[in-house]
Amino acid sequence: MLMAHLLLGFFCGITFGIAVASYVALYAPVLVDVYVTEYLVWILMSSSVFVLITVLGVTIGRYCSTVSFTQSNHDERALQLFVVLPGSRTLTFSGSTDSTVGQLMDFVSSNSLFTFQPGSVWRLTSSRGDVLSDRDKHLGLYGLHNQYHVQVLGRLLGGSGRLPNKRPASSKRDNISDAWLQKHKFSRCQDPLGQEVYACTQCPFTGRTRSQLYGHMKRCRLSFPEDTNLNMDNENDFNTSDDHNEDHSSSSKDSSGHTSEVLSGDSSGHSQVQEETALPSSLVSALIHVMDDLDPANPNHRQTLEYISAILDNLCQHSYPESEDDEPDAAELGVLSQLGAMDHGQLQLLEPTNPAELLASGSTVQAYKERLDDPLWRVTVNNGDGVVVCQEARITVGQFGYAWLKEKMAGRVRDVVADRQLRFLRDICLPPGNHVPPSLYVLRKMLGIPDPRDFEQHICLSEKCRFPPLPTKDWMDHRDDTCNCPEKYKRFKMVTTSAGAHPLPNKRYWDFGVENIIQAMFSDPLFRQLRGTGRDNEPDDFYGSQMAKDIDAKTNGQLMQHANSAYDLGFDFAQVYQFKTHSVGLLLMRCTDLPVAHRSKRRFTYILTVIPGPEEPSSMDVYVSRTLDAFKEYGTYSESSLMVMGNDRQLFEHKIFSSAIFADTPANRKLSLWNSHTSATGCGHCLLKGVSGEGGGMYFPGYAVDADVNCIFDGVIPDMENAPLSARCGDPRIMVSHEMHLKRAALAMKDPQWTGIVGCKGLSPIIRELDYCNYNDVFVVPVAHAALFGVIKRFWNTILGKLGRHVMDYTILGPQRKIMAQRASHIITTNDLNRPYRDIVKHRGTWTMEDWLHWLDSYSVYILHEEDSLQSSTPLMPVVQRVVDGITKSFNIKVMWNNLRTALLHYFRYDPSDFSADANNHAARLLKSFSIAAEHVFGIQFCTYNLHILVCRLREQENARGHVAFATEFWVERGMQMMKSIVKYRSPTVPELVLAGGYLASLWLTHLKAAHPETFRTFDEWVPGYRADNIQLNPSKRDVFLDEEDSEGSQLLGQGYIADAEQRSHILGGILRTEETEDFMARTNLLPSVLQDSDIYIFKRALKRRDEVVLSVDYARATKRQSYHFKCKYGPGGMVSESDPRVSIFIVEILFFALIRPRCDVAPVKVAVCNLHQAEVLRPKELYRVKDYSRRDATVNEVRQEILLNYFPKEVGMIDSKVIRCRVNNELSYFLTYVTFSQLPTNDGGEYA
After folding, report:
1. Three-state DSSP class for 353?
2. Which of 517, 589, 602, 879 is most buried (CB neighbours < 10 A)?
3. Cα separation, 166 vs 163, whole angstroms
4. What pLDDT sits at residue 780?
5. What is the pLDDT of residues 334-384, one digit of tens each?
6. At 259, is the secondary structure helix, strand, or coil?
């Protein structure tokens, strides 16, 4: 009514005001001859009249509303309000319109766990209506003359926005009289914690509140007085102190089915109180809700949890009927079923499939550990003849836990969903009495998965010192511990929850320990098999380098001993969320003593340390201190060694050494303590100074002309006093040696004012703790970031810049871009390239490092070639003119790209026939030539730190460490993907804890598999029919055959079927027909008679040298990617170059694979049956063209002319490099060679085969 009067007055005032103002504004200037300025005065007067009349109308409306309500309040009316409390709990207030707001507030405060501070605000129906803040006002004045809902919003007038404070619970939650206790057969006593409880005199039950006692009275099988009220809906105690309310309560059911308790009225004017609650009505439910407020990580709560567990055990012994006539109702069973879903520390109860099961079942984690070898379920069945047959599961409890958890992790199933799945299997799908763990917590503990808290390390807020280890149960006793810093930072902060105050560490990180990670490595049988095998076979790797020889000399020959190994550390930060900033750091570890083809796989990459976010730490010293201590303890500085298991499963002593630190440039600076790369002294390897650009940024020129040198060391450090005033990048005179590093670090530590001048902030912890490491060699150049994401990306972004009126002369124009886009549609990617090619003109903004690497390696060759009809008279890449020393010179952008590509390919591709000091120097000269041209063409803006570090350090690194391709940071990126795969699709408050827990689970399952390979099997091993690759069939049937890996690592995959007559004829005829028959038979010992008496099986896929999966045309799943094209040479000898006229280059199109299995004592042979198309060499080893590419049978002339050879058997191990088809049309195709880089961040899973 108030709102209606206000609106009426408002609209009346507006209408009247508009009318008067319009008349004054329109007619007054006509009646009076005034000037323009006077007209404006009339407009202002008219507006003022409008406002005044509107306000007057509103005032009149409000006055009428007040009078109307005042008159209406003469008649008192009964009033019933439903007060909605947080948690969907309601209280029913019965009063009248004369009841005051204060009476309503007092009623709610006395009948709930909430109280409100002075100034608390309530509003009618959420945000509508007046504020209920004046305690003396009658409810009728607020329009509450009918039934309304009053919702507690909990907003304070001070604007804090906090929820109302809970009233602190008193030590006695009930004033229960002794007479009432005696009448209902209870006694007053104390629990083990010293708190007052009420014990049943007829059974072991104890309770704390009146509602719990009512619940026990209803559920207990013993006799009680007939007048006892067994209503259980008043489960939560309201802390009422009136004794007369104890014995005068009655129960009733409302229309909605909820039980309401009617309390007798008091003198405050409200005669009845009805209460509704959505909480379950049982003592078990009450205990569950109490336990929800307890934190199992809090040591003070663990005793309480154990005490509640004892109560539940006692309750369960007296809660279930023994006869079928006394079954508990559905509501009771529904509440009891919540027991199995509880996950509080060690309190784990088994949900019963029937009421009697709980009495006999084991309910602890220990019970499940004892059942690991028991069948998952066992039942007895009567077969109908009176014979009882026992049936049991094929899988044990432990095997089920391992396989099920592996599937959960592979499918990224959320923990809540996993719990529900376990309960569904246990209670619905499997027979009663099965041993499926009731929760994910029990399953993890049953398998022995470590707790992340066991690897938690606490550090002070200054990140300078680390606290000693402390068990979780002792946190409360050490809550006031402080660090050794002058600031005395506290170790813990006290956090208050509904369960009380408990300590939490102020700053922490997770360190899994070097010794634990190495033990995990050696638990992998493949790791034990591969370790040390690459030293002799890969002489251009680390173990054949000068750096390894230096470390071996400094460690008294211990590095080169076969029992010892070197290890690499990787370090990086990554954002775990896409919707907010939260940077998490990982310290990774891998073994350098593995072959290059396996070293960087995810299976052999381990997380060592998890550094929490959301911000990156300012110093890494404390985070790497335990790691460096371990390298010292188990390295050359101590007599102690790690005892690890060898390939023969015998223990031996193992010493460890650090060989490299892999990190991108920002992360590198946190460990090397060099100045930021955005400063003028940002290069840690030389003294060349950076220059600030006009638009900001730091650039490092010195390619085309000399640049300034940091000469601050003249007269300060003897070894650095002869540096020239200016030099070019890469000049040996300005390079900083290891000894010079140490001297300038000492200078920076002695006087911090030198930090910005000398180029470092102090001595790196790596060098300080491991003195066999060399400053220049141990910190590896991040070649992938610097070259791919730095120089190459910047080059193509520059020449593919925006087109317009002021286009630069080095920009690729529109017609040429169209040709590049057309060629992009020709490329058909193979299956071992993770991402298909996306047009560089349009989509390069979303390219990853892998995309840029494949562009450098192969895609650019076809996109930029000039040997087809699409090529116009204008070259794709322009030629620009620049004045150099007064002379105009031409710079061809295509030549610049070729120089850059050739130089970087030397460092990214490993060619053992072309690895030498001369090849390294040639690549360095090409890189410097590109840099000089880039400085002339693009200016100083192209001279970034990424280009500088490549020119400055890459050649020296290869001379010191071995080939650069063996020391890229792709494995670190793969390790960061492990973190993202665990945390992805989740938004936890502490993602680092989720990461640590998930990674420990994965590591532990891997350990179980390695220790018991026959016991713990995955889903694919249990259900081999789900994947055809793993089908175990009997070869003796001679209809299907499974191949095994040979000594070269080649294997035919999938099922092999007996060749039909036509296939057999093609294979044998092709072998006997070719010119290479004699060589083939000499290698394989397959004489014609042996061939005729052999079993031949047909396969669709093959694995080449353990590293490359090859498909065939018959493989139906390869619909979008063609992975059956190879390049091969057909002619005399295998070492003849492609330019030799005696050699024909063919493109192989594999039709199918065949396994020739002689029936005599001759080794089987694996061949690829294929068509051979003679190709035209456009760019040797890179680009080929087949003008007449069609799938057809060859004519006699074509076979003689070697244009097309169909059904040509080629041994799988002798197939050359795979090629990418670029299909222009049905007749014309180009083919690109490419390299499968073993260190790319591919998703290899790291699982056991």
Report:
1. coil
2. 589
3. 9
4. 94
5. 434 443 333 333 233 323 333 333 333 334 678 888 888 889 988 877 766
6. strand
Judge contact between 652 and 559, C-beta under 8 A. no
DSSP state of 490: B
Contact by Cβ (8 Å): 1055, 1033: yes
Residue 1234 phi/psi, 5-degree rounding, is -155, 170
Half-sphere exposure of residue 760: CA atoms within 13 angstroms, side-chain side? 26
Whether the bond into 1141 is cis, omega within 30 of 0? no
CB 1169 within 8 A of CB 1208: yes
Question: What one-character-per-residue DSSP string does 1180-1249 give?
Answer: TTTEEEESS----PPPHHHHHTTSEEEEEEEEGGG---BEEEEE-SSS-EEEEE----TTS----TT---
Q: Print burial letters for 853-873: b (CB count within 10 Å at least 16), e (below 16).
A: bbbbbbbbbbbbbeebeeeee
Which among 550, 768, 786, 777 is positioned nearest to 685, based on CA atoms? Answer: 777
CB neighbour burial string for 624-651, b if at least 16 within 10 angstroms, e if fewer: bbbbbebbbbbbbeeeebbebbeeeeee
Task: Tell me how far apart the terminal alpha carbons of the chain are, to the nearest angstrom.
Answer: 78
Q: Cα separations (Å) of 116 from 102, 149, 158?
A: 11, 18, 13
Alpha-carbon distance of 897 to 980, in angstroms, equals 35
Please, what is the angle between helix 893-908 and helix 917-938, to 10°? Answer: 140
Under 8 Å between Cβ of 231 and 251: yes
For residue 225, give the amino acid letter.
Answer: P
Identify the pLDDT of residue 263. 26
Give residue 1182's identity as a one-letter amino acid code. Answer: E
Give Cα 364 to chain centroid, integer Å.
32
CA distance 637 to 628: 12
- The per-residue pLDDT for range 679-698, each reduced to its tens digit, is 888 898 998 999 988 878 89
Q: Which of helix, strand or coil describes residue 495?
A: strand
By the 8 A CB rule, do 291 and 344 touch? yes
pLDDT band at 569 (very low <50, low <70, confident <90, very high): very high
Percent of the chain with pLDDT over 70: 66
Read off the pLDDT band of 150 (50, 70, 90).
Answer: low
CA dihedral for 120, 122, 126, 127, sign (positive or negative): negative
1052 pairs with which residues across the strands?
Answer: 1102
**CB crowding 978-1011: b at 16 or more within 10 Å, else e:** bbebbbeeeeeeebbbbbbbbbbbbbbbbbbbbe
Q: How far is CA 868 from CA 459, 863, 1139, 1178, 1226, in A?
A: 65, 11, 21, 11, 15
What are the structure tokens assigned to 382, written together?
A: 């009567």
Residue among 923, 907, 824 nearest 864 (CA): 824
C-alpha dihedral sign at 776, 779, 782, 786: negative
Residue 57 burial by Cβ neighbours in a 10 Å radius (0-12, 13-18, 19+): buried
Q: Report strand pairing: 1204-1211 vs 1165-1174.
A: antiparallel
3-state secondary structure of 642: strand
For the stretch 850-875, pLDDT in tens is 899 999 999 999 999 887 655 556 78
* CA pair distance 941, 224, nearest whole angstrom: 92
What's the pTM? 0.68
Closest CA to 199 of 320, 310, 363: 310
Do residues 593 and 565 touch, judged by C-beta distance below 8 A? Answer: yes
**Rounded CA gap, 406 and 872, in Å?**
57
Round the average pLDDT of the chain to a whole number and report it: 74
User: Cα–Cα distance between 657 and 659 in angstroms, integer?
Assistant: 6
Tell me the sheet residues that pair with 1099: 1153
